[in-house]
Amino acid sequence: MSAAPTRLRRWGKDRILVTPEGIALPVTVASRGARLGALILDLIFIVVLMIGSTLALAAIGGGVAGLGRELRSGSAAGQALQFLVIVWIVIMFLFRNAYFLFFELGPRGATPGKRMTGIRIAARDGGRLTAEMVIARNLLRDIELFLPIVFIASAGVDSGWAWLAATAWFLIFMLFPLFNRDALRAGDVIAGSWVLERPRQKLEAAMSVARDAALGPAIEAARRGYQFEEAELAVYGEFELQALERVLREDRQQSIETVYQTIAEKIGRNDGWNDEKAFLEAYYTQLRARLESGMRMGRRKADKFS
Amino acid sequence: MNAAVSSSSWSAIETAALRSDRFRLDREADWKRLEAIVTRMEKGRLRGVSDEDLLALPGLYRTVASSLSIARETSLDAATLAYLEALVQRAWFIVYGPRSSLWEWLRGFLGGGWSAAVRAIWLDVVIALAVMVAGTVVGWLLVSHDPEWYFSLVGRGMAGDRVPGASVQELHGTLFGLSKENGMSVFAAQLFSNNAQVAILAFALGFAFGVPSLLLLVQNLAVLGAMAWLYHGAGLTLDFAGWIAVHGTTELFAILLAGAAGLHIGRSLAFPGNRPVLQAAAEAGRRAALVMTGVVLMLVIAALLEGFARQLVDQTFGRLVIGGFMLALWSAYFFAFRGNADSATRVERRR
Q: Which residue has the higher pLDDT, B61 or B248?
């Protein structure tokens, strides 16, 4: 297994996932808010689809009013209507049970609602997300969501105990994700899946190359002017190097000056005055070269205290 | 230096000051290619990805994954590491995502995966079967001791003509002579939708350690027992058996499997053995989900039998033949059919 990721821990939602190749990947568990938002969006889509298809079928059937009468007559029109009613029943069943299945089985592993909130499902053990997992986690949705909602709606507030029981049931499952670390709902527990944030990261230019290529030899020459002694480089470790990299990439004059002053004071040099950026870039490159050659020898220096 | 100004990658590699940056520039083309493929697939434009790219995807994924491993050991460029980590994760989602062809999965499922899953939960099937038999007996006994029980079990609305004390004629009428009725197909679709929902419920309730699944089985089968008692009293036992058997062998089998699947999950939650509870639940859940997909299929068939075959075949012998045939078919499929070993193991392996 390769070493743990070097990225700084950001918050309590970061987890390490080990792929079948043995590579440890940092992943971020989707926030409960994003998941609730995704669920609400999906429910809205489902309701809109249900209403839309019902209206469309009703239009084809020529109005709902005469439906019951026509169904009992054995005429050809009755037969056609029967067929439409079957289509309607099947469509309603599919919307309720197959909507989530269909989308989560696709290569994106996310329903439209999840896609909009930037989350998706994955296997908790780092292996393949299988169809069985998706089926299992969505069958449970029935008792988590649809059933108690139907109960609550049919019981009504005035029926006392039944309503209370249905609401308690609903709340137990709705609040389930609040009481475990990975925000798993009951379906995730059964399926062995979890919901993760979708990563987005652009490749930024390499620090030691890009500027040279873009701005030409002038800066390159200027940078060569700064040479740091071994002792001057030895004061900092990887943590400070990455902080410096961030400052350089953000490229804000004010923070560059502050950082320059801190470093210059620490190593006792002041020849970079009015040329702070080039000074820091040179320092960054040489510090990195030093730390990386140490790494190749198996010596790592985590921060300035080690 | 002119070459560097034109930013050709070769000269960029030459001028890069750091070994880790040279490493990066060497491999950047592969990374970018993988990113382009992954981005296109994430947008759902599978058709926009050429065959060549699709074939290269797993290889590229492994290349980039190994780049990440090396970079972690040799490079301190935080931006590159973060990019690689995100890219490997995105590619991992795709490479280890749900298999793209639902059709292939379905073939493996029907050709052995389903029956293998049913056999894997055989103990739960046996328990559920015992519970169902017990439920039927309980229903029978309750009603034979006190006919008032009939109404609390069956319910007045559902009972209709089928009440204790009804004449043999009336009871006979509920079993036969319905073939002229219209709206059969609608009836069948409704039955399916309703039964499938009940089966899903029986499965999903397994989450509460399987107890509600069993209660649901007992309750449903007690109704059957009570009705059996009623028809037995009128001397119509065989006719009733035929009336139920047409679709019942399929439908009760499906409900049996759904209850067993729920019980399987409940059992793995209550007694996970040496495995962590979450892992045990996940393994059981996936096995049970396979069974449940099959249960929904069985219920479609049961609804068709109930809606059409029962009304069209208006005599007991024919009904019993159909019911017996279906029972033999399912039993053979689940317990004798080993299936296409290849596809069965594929489903097994991917689990």
A: B61
What pTM did the predictor assign? 0.72
**Whether residue B162 sits in one domain with residue B27:** no
B77 shares contact with chain A (CB less than 8 Å): yes
Select the residue of B31, B205, B292 nearest A143 (Cβ to Cβ): B205
User: Does residue A9 belong to any structural domain of this protein?
Assistant: no
Would an 8 Å CB–CB cutoff place B141 in contact with chain A? no
Which residues, listed in sequence order, are joined to residue A273 by a DSSP beta bridge?
A: none
- What is the C-alpha to C-alpha distance for residues A250 and A278, in angstroms, rounded to an integer? 15
pLDDT digit string, tens, across residues B277-302: 888 888 888 888 888 888 888 887 88
Alpha carbon distance B76, B59 (integer Å) = 25
Residue finishing a domain among B95, B116, B143: B95
What is the per-residue pLDDT across A236-267, written as a single tens digit (0 to 9) for each?
888 888 888 888 888 888 888 888 888 888 88
* C-beta atoms of B204 and A132 within 8 A: no
Q: Which of B34, B67, B95 is the last residue of a domain?
A: B95
B:218-237 residues touching chain A, CB 8 A cutoff? none
Identify the H or E element spanning B193: helix B184-204
- Which of A269, A301, A298, A299 minimizes the C-alpha distance to A282? A269
Cβ distance of B102 and A295 shorter than 8 Å: no
Residue B47 is part of which domain span? 2-95
For chain A, how many structural domains are there in total? 2
**Which H helix or E strand runs over A25?**
strand A24-28
Which residues form the domain of A264? Answer: 210-296
Q: Judge: A199–B12 Cβ closer than 8 Å, yes or no.
A: no
Contact A186 B207 (CB under 8 A): yes
Please, are residues A81 and A68 in contact by the beta-carbon 8 Å criterion?
no
Instruction: Count Cβ–Cβ pairs < 8 Å, chain A vs chain B.
Output: 260
Contact B182 A71 (CB under 8 A): yes
Q: A292 and B76: CB-CB below 8 Å? A: yes
B139 and B262 both lie in a single domain:
yes
Please report which helix (H) or strand (E) contains residue A119, including its range.
Answer: strand A119-123
Probe site for chain A from B14, B28, B85 (most A CB atoms < 10 A): B85
